[in-house]
Write a structure and sequence with these properties.
Four copies of one chain form a homotetramer. By secondary structure, chain A is α/β, with parallel strands linked by helices. Chain A has two domains: about 10-15 and about 265-390, Aspartate Aminotransferase, domain 1 (Alpha-Beta Complex); about 20-265, Aspartate Aminotransferase, domain 2, CATH 3.40.640.10. Chain A contains 13 helices and 13 strands. The first copy, chain A, has a seven-stranded mixed sheet, sandwiched between helices. In chain A, helix 1 packs antiparallel against helix 9 (about 250-265), helix 2 (about 35-55) crosses helix 9 and helix 12 runs antiparallel to helix 13. Chains A and B meet through helix 1, helix 3 and helix 9 of A and helix 1, helix 3 and helix 9 of B.
Chain lengths: ~400, ~400, ~400, ~400
């Protein structure tokens, strides 16, 4: 392939840009995963990741993608044939429900338009219908990566409480963790699902389950056959910093470095930064006149912005043009919005000028693709960012 | 921790030493796993790994440890409650059988002394007893990492053939792949299980299933609930170089580099090198007067040598001393031989002088630990290696 | 230090951004500099660098900064007390002349306003005055890094020819090499001076002298005492790929990789890219209403743009603000324009979106610093770049 | 080239093995060498390196090889035509004297047999002859890399003192620094010369001058023309952590990491380790029956051992065989001992097992080359090392 000068702009909503420090931390020899040196690494990672989930409960780490952590959430807490309540709010919510079906669970899927998060009244109704408490788990995606829509997880918790429904609350934090405020304990989530390749600023290959006491109780009752993803042996080994099978050591080196970085920048500062960069992105989008997939401002995502292209245009053409001309990857439209919406990822190790370059690429791409837009979106973003910088 | 000068000697039987070239190949930004650039990477890896298994059938790659690939082998081909035949020849054979039990399969375990591989007559008898062909799978570990014992896989195949038994043959190649000759197609293995962190010279985090036509047929009949490890979506996506969920991209960068290295050195040369270094290790062990766990010379492993310490000594003390004084990690005794045998890994990216240093460390450790031994084991190894070098 | 999220924007006119590929190529063990493997590396570098200078004559490589290559140019070709003609066109031209003085040469410096390159009429007059051909060397800086002004080297050559003056022509290509078209042989330059840390996309630490036949002849006559920078032993050892003393091996690894990249992108494409990105920068500057230090459009640099801040403002304040708020380094004003002009580096491994981000940072910085400017400079650049992208 | 499995053994007396930590520290983007961040790096390096020289005087750092630091030592303190006293004790001592001659100094070279260091009586006589104090500098090589002979620097100092001779004492510490105890201030050395690629465990590319008050005084009187290597501008810029021209930033990253490592291991522990590994090497050599080039045990080097091959054999054949068969680089015979002696480097980041592998390679090489030797040299080394380990 001919050399593409300069840095590639990886502005998909994950995998995200891995800081050089993290890449370097992983670029070292593997160590014996039964050694004292490893145990120290293991404990640093297992303890450190708790603060990111804002939990004091155990967090289980698998060598897998986030999909594996979904499976783990179900198979560790439920029994064959259990009923699950899910909401079709986007591609990943849908995939998760589908996987539950494949695993033999009965899944009630509340349909959606892919432009909103979970609507509390629909959740309340579904729970009310389930007077027998057949529903054992409610699935919620905190930030739907395919649409840029966040769901109000405290609202979900409140609705469950108000319904006095004992279903476990399972939350996908894959594209919110370490980017959008997520409070595992305060919100009393039972199982959270996370992945390494987004806000944690790591390459893909690690996945997480943050647990609750109730989840651990459910685990003891669960008869679902499980092996690789079994929490039991994990938790037992983890107490001493070890894992029941060979862990992905080099990704743990990376995780340790990411956790250090989080301490240096501070979680609250990270959330504020994501909010600021997301808002700048929306300023540009609004100026361009592109409609957001997220219909409700209260649900706008701070890690990904999905934008419709006007009728008569295909998002894949726009993205291909931008990739070819400007060496930037944007996120594809998925599922229901395939062909109609593209996504700008603004998650992880990002700053104003990287976002500036990103928006420049989108604005030039719109022009090249012949898509009607109002020039000056970058400008609008800069005005917003300058105001923010003045205030800081 | 105070600095330990020089290189650590990682002489456990995996994870093995990762060549700098491979570490460097992984030390680069993640790319979009939906891009054309990724597809090229995916295809190179998926095609290239076939030659390592010596197969023309598909090889499935999971972001997981080898344990995950075991689970995948079972859940993709069997049905709930199926009967499996397994042999307790060592720690990993035992763990695999135990996992099968946890997943709800019925497992017949033929007991063993952990010093031999599968005995063909015991296999033949077990198959003969199963006239109703209830046994759906036979588990075999090609190279038992815990004992340094190899099993004659062509013999297993022959025995199955002679019994005209239709059970699927599943082979764990985790510590033999790319180090000891393994011929998936020629030996008509149905599912092979592999991992990244041994002969493939990668960090842990990838696992493999090499398939057969019969395995694919069985997959279509399998009703076992599965999600993450489902071959179906994998094989479908793999045809275009993609994966159904986020792959461990950076490990794939590494795999591509390892595959290049294999082409440069040549698989046959790699097998010969492992044989030579293993033989040199055994020369030293014999000279020292340490008994091998592997009782039958025809089953000696070319990737790991497990050696008993004399009664009255503990292998963990020896290893701790060697780690402290000479900065070398050796493999612990596991399961039945815990406390009694230690293991020297000689797998992967290794050469004569690295092995020389390793044996120096063991010989000095024996002296320091006060273990009775005959000095000159290193010498004996050098004599053998010199003879080999003269002949080459 | 608190973590600064995202990538630092290193937009000084060198050291420039080192591609990850080049950093990775250097991140490997040193090899024996007397080995056959090294000789291959040496020959690849020594041959490859010729094409970058567009010469078939030898290029000498020193472990040093560019300053060392300046010294080498003089001490290898001149004799103590020789007369040199230099032009005070900017900071580096001035430093070079000063160094010549320190080394005991007699230097005639033609004064300048730091806003123009060498004026041919002034050169012609100086040569005409020197009817005795006392002047042994003429110094020219191809691209004055401190001001963003290029000098017409073919014009200098022509002027020397027309004057029939035998002085050696010495050209500083430090911030033009591999970025702005430089033709060593065609322009009959006698000694060119280059450094690793700009267009060659390497860290600092290597410096270059491209030679001519006349320079080699002069070298044989030179009585100037010299040691480290002596071409003689260099050229002798270089024929076999070696060096007379320990070379900076890891930087040579990097150079080999840069040379590969040049082959992939193509020198002409690289020159065109620098021209395009420079033009885009000037579009922004013009829109902002900031005056360029370079007064003559025919002398605008394609690697660095120096811009005056209005009276009453200090460039160092602007840069400090941009560094603090937006994590970008810009070039300081040097010498005569210190405090009055800042510099935007656009040299080396750069693309449209990196430049976009850079210009966003400058525009926001102007706003924050309260410097009068017309908003929309980034927009103006994007319009230009879009037009260029359409045409490509 | 076909892949050479395992690690290359780089056992030349420098460049030495670079720890992965140091390579990783250098594998990061360049920073602005005029920034506050750089100043911090500069100060850490400039202060830290003093402790390695055991001096409280300034240490100057050049982007160059050690040869450049030699030149700097002379041109900064002497005047054209000054007389220098040198001793032909090996290749590097000879080269240094030759360079002095090339630079126009008058050099008195006391001949030697390349098997001894400076003999104090010869030094005393030479000083006594120089009643007019024409000799302005005495050159001494602390550890002659070509022969493995150390010179008693305190003895040299004492002899100068006793002669009441004011000549500056210049000491080459290139292959002793940070490996063999060198005390700049205590021994009242005036200029020490060092390089990055040996005991400092860095790639080549940095060189050092440690100074004394007298050297600084001499510098003020020196009329020798100088540019690149001028201490003046260096010292001036260094006070604030900067350099007068672009420094080799990435090597400074590496130096900072090496300095950290020195703190962790401790200089005294490093000297003791080098002594132990050198002694083990000599045990092997003695057992093999190979004669050392160093004739006097009190002058044995702790960083390099040069060994004669018996008459009728060529050291280059032995080395070529070892490189081909066992992937190890040994040092060539240089100058007077070319063809007759090879060198084992044991400097820098080395431990017992790396040395064990090294000696295994030499012993096997002797056998393959048909050189008469007594088998068991490795054994002898192990016995010594085991005794040492017991005592520690």
């Amino acid at each position: 392939m001919p050399y593409k000068p300069g840095r590639h702009f990886l502005q998909i909503p994950g995998p995200s840009n891995v800081p050089d420090r993290v890449l370097r931390a992983m670029d070292r020899p593997v160590i014996d995963h039964r050694s004292a040196e490893f145990a120290q690494l293991g404990l640093e990672c297992l303890n450190g990741i708790k603060s990111v989930f804002q939990t004091s409960n155990p967090v289980v780490v698998f060598p897998s993608s986030g999909t594996g952590a979904w499976e783990a959430a179900m198979t560790n807490t439920l029994n064959p044939g259990d009923r699950i309540l899910a909401f079709e709010i986007g591609q990943f919510a849908t995939l998760w429900a589908k996987m539950a079906g494949n695993l033999g669970f009965r899944v009630d899927v509340i349909p959606g338009d892919w432009r909103h998060g979970i609507r509390m009244e629909e959740l309340a109704q579904a729970l009310a219908r389930d007077s027998g408490h057949e529903i054992k788990a409610v699935f919620a995606v905190h930030n739907e990566t395919s649409t840029g829509v966040t769901t109000d997880i405290p609202g979900v918790r409140r609705t469950l409480d108000e319904a006095k429904h004992p279903a476990l609350l399972m939350v996908d934090t894959i594209s919110s963790l370490a980017s959008i405020d997520y409070r595992h304990d305060e919100w009393r989530v039972d199982v959270a699902i996370g992945g390494s390749q987004k806000g944690l600023m790591l390459p893909p290959g690690l996945a997480f389950n943050a647990l609750s006491k109730r989840a651990l109780d459910a685990n003891r009752q669960s008869k679902f056959p499980k092996g690789y993803f079994d929490w039991g042996a994990m938790l037992d080994n983890n107490t001493r910093g070890y894992f029941p099978y060979t862990p992905a050591t080099n990704l743990l080196y990376g995780l340790r470095e990411s956790l250090l970085i989080f301490q240096e920048e501070g979680l609250q500062a990270i959330f504020a930064r994501h909010k600021k960069l997301a808002q700048a992105t929306r300023c540009a989008a609004q100026h361009w006149g592109l409609e957001m997939v997220a219909a409700d401002p209260s649900e706008y995502s701070n890690t990904v912005t999905a934008l419709f292209v006007p009728d008569g245009f295909r998002e894949q053409d726009l993205r291909a043009l931008i990739l070819e001309k400007f060496n930037m990857s944007l996120g594809a439209g998925l599922g229901k919005v395939a062909g109609r919406a593209f996504r700008i990822g603004h998650i992880g190790d990002l700053n104003e000028l990287m976002l500036g370059g990103t928006l420049c690429g989108v604005e030039m791409g719109l022009e090249l693709a012949g898509i009607p837009y109002r020039a000056g979106g970058v400008n609008a973003a800069l005005r917003y960012l300058t105001t923010q910088a003045k205030a800081s």
